[in-house]
Each structure stands twice: as structure tokens, then as C-alpha cells.
Amino acid sequence: MTLRLDTQHLAGFVCAEEYKAIAPQVECAHRALHEGTGLGNGFIGWVDLPANYDKEEFQRIKAAAAKIKSDTDVFIVIGIGGSYLGARAAIEFIKSPNYNALPKKTPDIYFTGNSISSSALAELLQLCEGKEVSINMISKSGTTTEPAIAFRVFRGLLEKKYGKEGAAKRIYCTTDRAKGTLKQLADKEGYETFVVPDDVGGRYSVLTAVGLLPIAVSGADIGRLMQGAAKAREELSCPDLEKNDCYRYAALRNILYRKGKEIEVLASYEPCYTLMCEWWKQLFGESEGKDGKGLFPASVIFSTDLHSMGQYIQQGRRSLFETVVLFDAVKQEICLESDAENVDGLNFLAGKSMAYINEKAFEGTVLAHTDGGVPNLVLHVRDFSEESLGYLIYFFEKACAISGYLLGVNPFDQPGVESYKKNMFALLGKPGYEEQKEALEARLHR
Ligand code: PA5
User: Fold this and answer.
1) Which GO terms describe its cellular component (predicted)?
2) What is the ipTM of this complex?
3) Which domains does the chain have, with CATH numbers?
4) Which of 15, 108, 194, 332 is least surrounded, with the fewest CB atoms within 10 Å of its CB?
């Protein structure tokens, strides 16, 4: 089994009646999603994507990745939010958070355009000195400010280094099929383009070219990634709550939320899961946090954060629950050896693997946290393969959509993201924002 939800640590927190009561609502949410009658139904292309993705484009992605691997030392991926988190999370999960530092035959990969920090951008420019560079600019709208700034800077660098024509052979754009500034620019300059489908929103787009090109450049097998997602699509399409772990997860987190557990802490005992936590936070935070509602998604990596956030989780406000993602296998194993002098007193662990010790850390923690009043859901994932990741991604995407419908929100829009943008544009003096500029400045300088 690729993924299994274990609910034994919910005992005493959720009762059978609550679970029974939510079952018809889950069935309704399932129908709304599968029949395309729910809120935001123009953005459910990701549901069948693992089966009906564009196979011709998939081959082009593989060909582009092969070219990039052959002519590039540093691959720069420009994008923000859903246009960057999934790819970065997948590379760190499948390969490593230390991917760039490890010996390998594939290019270093850096992500930029996800902040407005000149220090970060300048540092990246320095890292590119004397290196062969290619760029993947990713923006569905094609107009997002942060990546647009980084793209202008890197395009300039490539044109200076390779000339306009040479640069064009090293710039890959992932954007809307037909519209937007980026698409226009790419067509004009002759950059190769890949598509973010109309009916797939940014945070649901990691299994489109948005995620697939950078992931393929890292040497990961994107075919196996899609196979894992296709398996999840098959297995998680059953409307029966009892037989569908994805729906059980969505239902249980909503039951807990309705009982005042307003914060969900996603926990993993593997550092390579850190960016997957960030991807998950965006997926759920942007999908559910609206209309004055929504679980607040937080994350921790254990045992690291048991020495920081562990205190709060054990004894702070009782408004949270944990969802722990555990892996049945490790990428590499280390066993502790016996030491003749035993100065560190660790001989009681001699012969034990670190995986075993990590497992005991989980068992000790789950008992302590549930004793402290924190319900725990546990997701067991088979391993760190591309298949498992594809499965996990689809599992969370579908759980998020069902969960959003249970909450009564549109899980596919993000109207709140516009507020800061409008203010920032006004304060920067973008044409058309003159009135707002005056009003905002008066408030800032009162
Ligand atoms: O999930 C979303 O839709 C957002 O996080 C977007 O991905 C993010 O704002 C970037 O948008 P774009 O790809 O249009 O540049």
C-alpha cells in the first residue's frame, strides 16, 4: 500500500457519532467535485490530470530537460507560490535538501523570484558567474511582480552572456496557453513554452509543466511520479468514507476544526520533507483560509522542533492537532556501533538503526502529545520514491478540495492575495493607482 491513514491516536478526541454525522456531507462534496457542480468548478482540471495529461508536451518536457542537463551548470527556476513550491518540494523530497552540494551529473537548481530581496537575487547572480546558465520562468498569469523582476534581471544576464539568440535557446517559459504578458514575450523572442492548463490553479499545478520540467532536470523520473498520481486517482475515487483514506483525512480534520482545534500541525521526522510541508501549507492555507474560516496550517520537523515548538505543542493552548507523515522505509541506513569505553553512555543503542531510534522518538512523542490533549492523525507512506510522492501529492490535493467543500468555501480561488498587491502597486506609483497612493501614504505618515 502506498499510503495508509492511521487513526488510533484519535481515541478520546473523535467519537463514532461525529464521524457518522459527517459521512453524508463527504458524499455531497465527492459528488460536487466529480460532477463539477461545486464552487470553483472551472479549476478542477487536476482531478483527471494524472490520466489525461498532454502526452506530447510531456515528451517535450523530457527533451527540454535532457538538453538542459547537457548544456547547463546552473538551472534557475523563477516563480512564486504555486509556481515554485511544488517543484522545489519534490526535488528536496526525491533527491535531497542538499541536492546542489551533492556529487551529481545534473545541473545545480536554484529557485528565485519568490521574494523581493535584492540580497538573495544578487547572491544568485554571483553563483552564476563563469557557469553555463538556463532559466525556467514560471507564471500562470504572466504578470506576477516578484518573478517578473527576477526574470528581467536574469534575462539581461543571459542576453549579455550569450547574445539575444543564444539566450533564447536557454530560456524556457511555463505560462498560460494563449494569454498574458509572458506568453506574448516568449512568442516574440522565440522561447520554448510549456502550458499551465486553464483549469488548473497554481497550487494544484505541480503535476503540470510547472513542476515537471524542474523535477525532470534534477534527474527524477517524472513518468513514475505521474504513475503514482494516477494510482491515487484510481484508489481515491471511491465515495465511501470507510474505504477512502483521503476522504477520511478530510472528514476528520473538519470534525476536529469544528470542535475548536483550529490549527493543524503537519509533522515529519524527515528533514527532506520540510519543503513538502511548505507546499502543503500553501495548498491548504490558500484554499481554505477565507470568509473568516479555515484551519491554520502549520508545520514542524521532528525531532528538530521538539526542541523548539515541542514545548508549545505539549503544554500551550489546546487549539491544535497534529498530522504526522511517517515513512516505512529510509533512503539510507546508519547503525550505531558499540564503543569499548562507552563514555557517552550510548551503548544501550549499539546495534540499533537510526530508523529504529526515530521510530521510538515518534512513539514517545505521539503518546506524550495525545496525553497532553493533542489529537494525532498518522499517514504512513511507503517510501521516498517518485511513485509515492505522486500519490501523496494527489492525496493532499483531493483532501484539500473535499475539505474546502466541507467547510463551505471555494477551495480554488485566492481573492485575499490581491490586497497586498494593490497597496504595493499604489505605493510604488504604478500608473492607475494614483488615488490609492495618496490615501495609503497619508495613513503611513500620520
Ligand atoms: O496558488 C496560486 O494560484 C498562487 O499561489 C499562484 O501560484 C502565485 O500567486 C503565482 O501566480 P502566477 O503563477 O500567476 O505568477
Assistant:
1) cytosol
2) 0.98
3) 3-37+227-407 (3.40.50.10490), 48-220 (3.40.50.10490)
4) 332
